[in-house]
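I hope you will forgive my troubling you with a question about protein structure. The matter concerns a single protein, recorded as an amino acid sequence and a row of backbone structure tokens. Please examine both parts with care and let me know of anything in them that strikes you as inconsistent. Thank you for your consideration; the sequence and its tokens are set out here:
***
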Amino acid sequence: MSRTGLLAQFKRTLQTATVTKPFDKVLIANRGEIACRVMKTCRSLGIKTVAVHSDVDDRALHVRMADEAICVGPAPSNQSYLDMEAIVNAAVSTGSQAVHPGYGFLSENCKFAQLLEERGIAFIGPKEKAIQAMGDKIESKIIARAAGVNCIPGYDGVVEDDVAAVTIANQVGYPVMIKASAGGGGKGMRVAWNDAEVREGFKLSSEEAAASFGDDRLLIERFIDNPRHVEIQILADSQGNCIYLNERECSIQRRNQKVVEEAPSPFITPEVRKAMGEQAVLLSQAVNYQSAGTVEFLVDTQMNFYFLEMNTRLQVEHPITECITGVDIVDEMLRVAAGYPLSYTQSDIGIKGWAMECRVYAEDPVRYLPSVGLLTKYTEPGVSHNTADLGVRCDSGIVEGSSISIHYDPMISKLVTYAPTRQEAIDHMEKALDEYVIDGITHNTPLLREILGNERFKSGNISTKFLDEEYPQGYSGGDLTPEQKSELIPSLSVLHHMKMNRTVTDGRFEYIISCDEDKVPVTVNVQKGDYTVTFEDTTVTVNPSGGVFGALQEFKLNSANTVALQHLQFDGVTHTLRYRCCKRQITVLTPLQQRFMDSMPVKVKEDTSNLLISPMPGSLSSISVEEGDEVLEGTEVAVVVAMKMNNSLKAPKSGKIKKIWASVGEVVEGDQKILEFY
């Protein structure tokens, strides 16, 4: 297929072949980007939509997009988005014929599906028995083995306590994976390599599972070291039809949560794809599955694959499958829930092009800790520039001025690119990330940008250990290479000169740019509106694409290479900007200003070595020490819950607890003192 044909296919992703409207009104029992995503397909079908929201989400984008909206409770999700009675009552009061649960929250809750059925309201998802069977990780493995699906060795019963966990782990053999029976999305999961890690992992996983799913049951299985995470998308209807929509590679993960996904996999052969797809169909048929679902597998280096779990809902990363197949998965879910057969047969499903997805999270990419706050600047790629023509899709549920709350998942959006080849999809993603303006909170686009430029990633040689292996000391924040400095310095020199001199005047102008630890002298020559920059014995012609206003600025160097800068703030001296997604503060001074600056005293940083400081905003759920206790470095002393994740805080040094500054149950700020040591 030609490039034009592929791009046309991409633009048809959210168009539907459905002729008959399956429902007149649908309530979406979710928030954020997935609620907006479902509404887009409903709108294309002429279906009216109802949004539910907590009190803090009353001005959220999904609320504004819907035809109707109902508040179902306060901010904590267990009092709003997880309140089954409130949501069912909202569906009844608005006359909704069906409810789409999205993903997370109540999407895999069989009791919720049952309550809707009792009220005569369709649940847009599988039947209660299938949710129950596949949602229970223990029962699902028993069913999978009986259906002839390859399974990971492990213990199929419920692990009662940490003592039993240690015994089972030794029987299964280290390393082991401790995981929530009712879980998903990386929550309630820990890898343990010894008895001590099993005890700690059992405690944290059970607490996290109870908080996230209302079910603290855990199972233990062998941890397959260095695998790929590959999943199969399936669709099934009530007439007995079941098809698979090929695979997605989801191996780039942190904390067992996916970060970058792609379809198809760069590793799987057509023969293995067919075998995995057929096993996914067998499992689905074993539980009379009806709707969209995803069967996840771990794949080793020899292409042996093992059943991991089945997600009985719309998957976060479904857009990349839509791109390469042309199937609107939400439309098919609506059809199936209304009793219609699938629009496709297996022979209709092919692979057209390559799709890449980056999950953009509100989190510190260095420490993987969530970030909250107000989006002071927000522009999606394709809004102000022409990236939409490159096959870029951004599924989000926010706008400039939206708030990222401690109460919900930190995902900002799913950024998707689609192209004829894998390398082109990567190239488009790099450009889209460079043009994605997000400010006011910390986010992970610098890490995403670095992953995409990694030679190992580009070769397709990846596994679930990719981030640990490529960044064994953790991602450091994107140090500039000499080549990148040679792009940034001339571009910023011209931008600074344009901002300081609104009238173009010919001449020779000197500046000192403080970049990282270096102070780089530069000379900007202006002749008849043309710019050349000389620095470090290099001269570069620089052509700005426009004026000095707007966050996104582009410069063409030597009439060839285009450099994108996100210019976020300027006080006349210091530029706050993003280059290749990394946020930097770079000072530009005249030589005289630099001499004065060099004579200023250096401010001494406060010594915080005797303090335990909360690395993020959240709720302080426990403190396991008292004043006067002796602790060893690395001992867990507190737990902060933020965005549905339990974050263990460990003693930064060995010593005695001098003072406890915070209380259990208190909502703490980022950088707030919790404990002080002697």
About this structure: The CA atoms of residues 636 and 650 lie 4 Å apart. The chain has a mean pLDDT of 91. The first strand starts at residue 25 and ends at 28. The chain is about 30% helix and 30% strand.
